Amino acid sequence: MGSWMKMIKELTIRPKGERQIRKSPAYSFDEDLKKPLSGQTVKEILSKSSDVVFREFFLQGKDRIPCMLAAVDGLVDKNLLDQFILTPLMVDLARHPELTQVTLSNVVDKTLQSLLPGLEIKKISKMREAVDAILSGDSVIFFGNLTEAIVVGARGWANRGVAEPITESIVKGPREGFSETLRINTSLLRRKIKHPSLRIISLKLGDMTNTDLVITYIEKIASPDIVSEVLKRLSKIKMDAMLGNGYIEEMIEDNPYSPFPQISFTERPDVLAGKLLEGKVGIIVDGTPIVLVVPAILTQFLNVNEDYYQRAMVAILSRFVRYVGAFMAIVAPSVYIAVTTFHQEIIPTDLLMSISAGRQGVPFPALLEALTMTVVLEILQEAGLRLPKPIGQTIGIVGALIIGEAAVTAGLVSPLMVIIIGLTAVASYAVPTFDLSLAVRLIRFPLMILAGVLGFFGVTVGLYVILIHLLGLRSFGVPYTSPIAPLRIRALLQDTFVRAPWWALKRRPQLMDVEDPRPNGKG
Amino acid sequence: MERISSHQFVVLGSAVLMGTTFLPIASIVTEVAGRDGWMSVLPGFVVGIPYGLMVISLLEQYPRKNLLQISDIILGKWISKIIGVVYIFIMCYFGGLLLGQAGDIYQSSIMPLTPIGMFYLGGILLVFYLVKSGIEVFARFSEILFPLIIIALVLNIGLSIPRIEHGELLPILSEGIRPIIWAWLKVAPFAMEYILFLAGILTFLPTSKRELVQLKRGVWRTVFLVGFLNMLVVLIQILIFGPGETVRMVYGLLVLGKMVEISRTVAGVESVFLGAWLGALIIKAGAFFFTVTWGLETVFNLKGLKWNLGVGVIFMGIAFKFTRGPDLVMEIGLVDNYLILPFAAVWILTLWGISRWKGAGIS
User: Fold this and answer.
1) Does A342 share its domain with A462?
2) Residue A194: inside a domain, yes or no?
3) Which of A119, A130, A436, B252 has the lowest tally of Cβ within 10 angstroms?
4) Chain B nearest C-alpha distance from A162 (Å)
């Protein structure tokens, strides 16, 4: 009880002026990190965390050297630690008299050269390196009061392994997806591209979280300008926490106020490999299975990896359906509003009579009717999205069937409106990328209002505004609407609206300046 | 500094030259040349070729300079300033009239009860957004819209073919060749509008030797493509409506759009076609807005958002002055025939002539 009270007191009562210092949480910590490296200081810094373990022992060489191993329980593989670090140092050394030449002055080098058999092992001399290594899951061995230490890589923590990606499931193609562990993800990528030009550059972001991430690209294919731009933008990020790819996405995209995604993502190693072979750059963040890919262009959000595993003709048809679906998802409600409110002449007479009969008794104008139904649809989608799967399905059925049917029976909405909204919902599911479907959902509303106020003129103005906005967007210097505008005819014919057969893909689709436009670029 | 490629130059130029010329052209040429009016369309546009080539050759001589800056070098400061003021006035006035045309087309064809100011507002918003986004975005906008405009035009023409009456075209040349020449003069200002846009856009064009050749080729392609399409538009209207009705209907193509019917199911699709025509108008009005801003920057060093807003307000003011369709059409004709044609013809010929003469003198 007493220790609890002491802890609470420490946390709540602070001397005057401390608040100001705590404004920057990393401040006092940074001061400690500037001190010379010593096991004792590291212990002082980290001993308040119960998961950090310190194992003290003696190394019996010519001198009897006090040693300390520091590691985070749960992040290290205890078997590795016992077998390949503690046993050689504490047991094997005593059995080999020829090694008794170890003294305090040469212990670090002797340990590196002869005592520890591990692959990932290196000497360090800075406090920050030691603390970062321990907190990242490595083990650090300190020797007496030396200002040098040894880092041994013996990481091992619980992970869910390689599983099938949830957001990008396909029928015909590989089943493996990225996981939350960075090194597993890079190994999956390396298995796809076994070429020395695959570059994997490691970085750390987040003052507090110290998150590992890598930038990956293929030298000679990726434009050096884009690679350096990615590095430049990442280096400018200053934040305490980097808990996932979403943090980076907003910090490095070109136009943060646009509803359209300017950075694509994937959970699949085969997709990432394919994108890298097109000259793009991947950003893999530790702790998330989502890999960011830049630059991104609009049309790639409508293409899926399944296209590359299907026959070309089937892929072309699928793409066509997706493009039509996306267009319908954007304009279907607004066209309905414009037609029923302003342009009845466009409807054949029989259909007009049927629509008119359906709308009889509906007390709301088409605009209000459509807006209400679309908002209800959005609520249903949002409610169903984060609920457990069986409940989510129930919500969908209750919403779509029961509420829709009841609304029509009560005469609140016309049957055709329910069809239009249902069609819009189905069409929006044809948009394969979640980020783009969010943008589609967003831009639907202003278009509906414009349709209700100005008919087709309003819809046209709205669509042109969206078009101009899209044409002005860039992703890491690449025009977002490429290869349609600016026109790159080869890319357009090879892999945009259509997917040319593999034998016809003579050169890489040139959406940007690639260094080496050799044949069969896609992976 | 923004740049556009030679391909974008061709597409943007074609979109600007095309504009909405296809809407009134049939009425204009048929009024003068009767059923032979279609023959004057292509020659009328071809006038643009020598002038376009003159402008490109001036670019070759003075890279990265627009015609106002070149005038400053060739004709001196004060004369170039006067030319600049006239240029800005013409472009601003005509741009405002084009904005007015957007309102007129929509109100007269499909939305007669909506206040015309709403169309002006929608139009100027689009033009302003385009101008603010820069010439690269403008070029990309044309790259996307121009093919759609062509498709809409071809569809409109193609779907009207069943209504053709072959006898309407005969007898050919019954009035002789003179009416065709007069009609040709009525078409020439359309080409000159394009030339005046070229005068401003020069600073954004590539200037390497290879690309200059492509630009020159681009002028040829642009003029022939647009001239040919307009000729088809005139031809189909004469064939369907006959010369008398074609003259009477100022926007005959809109009427054709109304008449389109497919399998007794799809009808009255002119509101869909109008979406494409609005795009064409926005490109043309945007081109004139751009040239006004370039002119202001070159002549008076006035640039920035507030001046652009000012130009937008003037455009709106001019559009509001001509809310009656017939007045607007008459005014557009007057500006075309008595301002744009003589101004462009004399200015560019003079500049080119003097530059050649000076060049010859130096050599």
Assistant:
1) yes
2) yes
3) A119
4) 43
Structural tokens at position A368? 């209000």
Q: Give the C-alpha separation, A223 to A55, whole Å.
A: 49
**Tally of CB atoms within 10 A around B297:** 16
Domain with A189, as residue range(s), is 182-296
Q: Is B275 in Cβ contact with A487 (below 8 Å)?
A: no
Q: In this complex, how many residue pairs, one in chain A and one in chain B, have their CB atoms less than 8 Å apart? A: 91
Q: What Cα–Cα distance (Å) separates residue A261 from each residue in A12, A267, A292, A436?
A: 43, 16, 11, 6
Domain B6-351: which CATH number of 2.40.50.100, 1.10.645.10, 1.20.1740.10, 3.40.50.1980: 1.20.1740.10
CB A218 within 8 A of CB A226: no
Question: Within the 420-459 window of chain A, which residues sit less than 8 Å (CB to CB) from chain B?
Answer: 454-459
DSSP letters of A298-347? GGGGG--GGGGTS-HHHHHHHHHHHHHHHHHHHHHHHHHHHHHHT-GGGS
| One domain, residues A449 and A327 | yes
Asked if residue A362 and residue A463 are part of one domain, the reply reads: yes
**Residue A56: strand, helix, or coil:** strand
CA B343 – CA B337 distance, rounded (Å):
10
CA angle B56/B223/B241 to nearest 5° reads: 160
Tally of domains in chain A: 3
Q: Counting every residue, how long is chain A? A: 523
Question: Per the CB < 8 Å rule, is A456 touching B110?
Answer: yes
Examine the domain organization and report whether A342 and A370 are in the same domain.
yes
**For residue A65, is it within any domain?**
yes
Which is higher by pLDDT, A390 or B126? B126
Are both A451 and A425 inside the same structural domain?
Answer: yes
Indicate whether A106 belongs to any domain. Answer: yes
Angle CA B164–B169–B172, to nearest 5: 165
In this predicted structure, the answer to whether residue B93 has a pLDDT above a threshold of 70 is yes
Residue A459: both structure tokens together: 């819809």
Instruction: Say what percent of chain A tops pLDDT 90.
Output: 34
Our measurement of the distance from residue B83's CA atom to the centroid of its chain's CA atoms, rounded to an integer in Å, reads 21
Kindly state whether residues A424 and A315 are assigned to the same domain: yes
ipTM of the complex, rounded to two decimals: 0.95
Residue that wins the pLDDT comparison between B150 and A238: B150
pLDDT score, position A139 = 92
Q: Where are the alpha helices (DSSP H) in B264-340?
A: 270-300, 305-321, 325-335
Tokens representing B269 are 């699709």
CB atoms within 10 A of CB A24: 12
Long-range Cβ contacts of A345-349 (<8 Å, 24+ apart): A345/B110, A345/B267, A345/B268, A345/B271, A346/B267, A346/B268, A346/B269, A346/B271, A346/B272, A348/B264, A348/B265, A348/B266, A348/B267
Provide the pLDDT for residue A509: 59
Decide if A213 contacts A286 (C-beta within 8 A): yes
pLDDT band at B85 (very low <50, low <70, confident <90, very high): very high
A299 pLDDT higher than 70 = yes
Distance of CA A468 to the CA centre of its chain: 28
Residue A343: list chain B partners with CB under 8 A: 110, 268, 271
Those of residues 462-491 in A touching chain B at CB distance below 8 A are 463-465, 467-468, 471-472, 479, 481, 484-487
Position B196: which residue type?
A: L
Give yes or no: residues A351 and A461 share one domain. Answer: yes
Same domain, A333 and A445: yes
Summarize the confidence of residues A493-513 as an average pLDDT: 75
